Each structure stands twice: as C-alpha cells, then as structure tokens.
What does this fold into?
Amino acid sequence: MNAVFDEVTGRYVQLNLAEESVRLYYEEAGSGLPLLCLHTAGADGRQFREIIRNQQVTENYRVIIPDMPWHGKSSPPVGWQDRDYKLSTEDYLSYILAFMDALELEQPLVMGCSIGGRVVLHLALRHQDRIGGIIGLQSGLDAGADEYDPETLSNFHRHDVHAGYSAAGWMAALIAPQSPDNHRWETLWHYASGGPGVFKGDLYFYAYDGDLRNQPLSIDTDTCAVYLLSGEYDWSAPPAGAQEIAERISGAYFRKMDGMGHFPMSENPDKFLEYLLPVLDNYREQP
Amino acid sequence: MDKLLDRLNSDPMLRRHGAYYSTQISIVAGAENHSFDINLGQVEKLLEVPAASGFSLVGAADAWRKFCEPVPPPEHHELGALLGSGHVRIEGDMYAMQSNFMYVRRLLELWREDQRETRS
It folds into this structure.
C-alpha cells in the first residue's frame, strides 16, 4: 500500500461571534500542552503542515490550527457577497477567544506569524490571564503604513487583476532565497487560492488597525512567556522590529533566523524547527 | 543577447503567464538600460535604450548588482523586495506591472541568471 496517512485530524465548529455565526475549520494532532497556531494574512492553516506532523512537537504539545473565518476551509459569514471583508483588532481577538472557549483551551501557548505575530502581542497585552505564553513569528509593532497610501493594497482586490497571482507574486518576495522550492511554491499556492478581497482585508489589520506603536508593552513574562523569532529576509516585518519589541519587554526571548523569510513554518519548515524546538523545550521547563 | 532571448522565450512559466501580455519593460541600472519588447508574452526584441512605452524599473547600479549576486542580501533577493524596500522604483504604466506581476518577476529572474553567467 502506497498511501501514508497523517495523524492530523480536521473538524468543524460553529462559532457564534458578536454579530455573526461562522463555520470554522481546524486541525489538531498530538497531546500535552495546547499550542494554538495562527496563520498569516491571506493564507490558511496549511502553513503549519509540517509543524503539526512533526513528532518532536506533537509528543509534548497538542497542536491546534484553525483557519480564520473567511480563510481556507472556514466559511465566510452569511451575506459575504454584500460586504467588504476588513479585519479589525476587535474582530480578530474575539474570534481567537471564542475559538479558545469552544475548545476549552486553558492557558495555551499561542504562536502566530505576521498578522498572527502581531495579534499575539494584542492577546498578551489585553488577555494575558487567558494564555500561557506567545511565540511571535515576524512580529512587528507596525507595517510601515505611513509610507504608502491605503490604495496600494487595491491590487489585491480589483476585477481586472488576478488577485491570486498578484498576491503570490508579491509574497514570493518575502521568501528567502535559501528556502526549498517545493515549500516556496506550496506557500505561494496558499496565497494564490485565497478568497476574493480577503488578503486585502487582512492587511487592514496589519497596516492600520493593529498598529501598536506608541503603546506601552506591559507584559509580565513570569506569567506570560514571550518568544520572538524573526527571519532575516523579511523586509515587511524585519528582525529589527521584533528585536525592538524584545528590548521593551523584560524577560522576552528573541532570535533572528538566518536565511529565513516571512513564512518560516511554511517556506522552510526543517530550518524553522531548529529554532522552534528549543523554544518549545524552554517553555515546558518553565515553573 | 540571443542567448537571453532564447532563455526568455523557452521558459514555460513566462509562456504560461504571458499569453495575453504585451508591453515594454526597462530595467534601468544607473546609466545602463536593459529593455524588453514583449508581444503576447514573446520577448521580440532586446534593447539597450529606454523603452518608449510600458514601464521602467529604476534603481542604482549597486542595487541591481546585489540582486544578481549568487545569494543576494536581504531587501535585494527578489523584484518585490527591491520595490518594497525602496531600492527600485516604478516609472510609467503601473497597471501593466501590477496586473502581470508573476510574469515580470519571472522575467527578472531569468535576466538575473543571464547576468550571473555573463559576469562569471
């Protein structure tokens, strides 16, 4: 028999959010401490496909990967055809907390990348009693939005531009040259297959609503561990930004990932695991 | 130049993405110009003068030199990285570039391969 089955299982949950109800897809594998993984803008949980299948991770952690509403196999709310999708900080946090409630996740370690790397900071700032710690991948306080007009994002959602190819073409520029071609193109496939207007709507959070500049970063790392890992080829959320965050949070951990871009878990999972596994070990050893 | 033309016109990805694409693209590297005259995805002519239409990708010679290194440094490894980091700017028909970005980035990759061979 040539077929090889993963240990990963997928399931749906109906989540009732503030103003809407959404059918949300998630995957999980492993047992132990809950590790909640949040994907980047305009993509979905497949970005963590090699992390959730890695035995060194799953022997100690229950890995849980939701697709955000509107993303991947999660449905958009009823009436999507009559509105623009635009991700706000409030909506983002409320979906994460509702998902944690639904699965009865207690004090999860929450790992997010890009917009996920930003929202874990919001989560730790506002709800640190709910989580055990955060791993921010490609975290930054802002996305340099002062330098461009909001209309810059319009190429990702206009009738006469192929949004999937536009997103894939631009996101190719955030992947490091050292990353293997198979994982590079899988990562770009996720971008090429997003729903209309979803990437642009996520970038509203990334570039504007989720901006954390000029805010105190009051996180007690004794009760909420903070780890920041950042790839050197990321010009959108460069390592210097994550390093600045680490310097402002006493007890935060920071590592620059050489030869890595904006999608570490997806573009070069083997290399990323070299950085992630020591973090996961360190977190487990915490009192 | 013939070798570059062959490389471009035999590339499956360029052929797939360029089926409906006609424009002119110039790479402006300091005082140098590398221009491509494209008709329905086929690169018909290579010129060393600025393109008369379409768009130009304008940057310092040093930025393009870094782009062509065997392992380019951060901010220089891809067309989008050069643009996003401000090392290269677009002049001309922005829509012609944005609506065919997969084609344009691939063209730049193939031009880079040619530059690397020429320089080594």
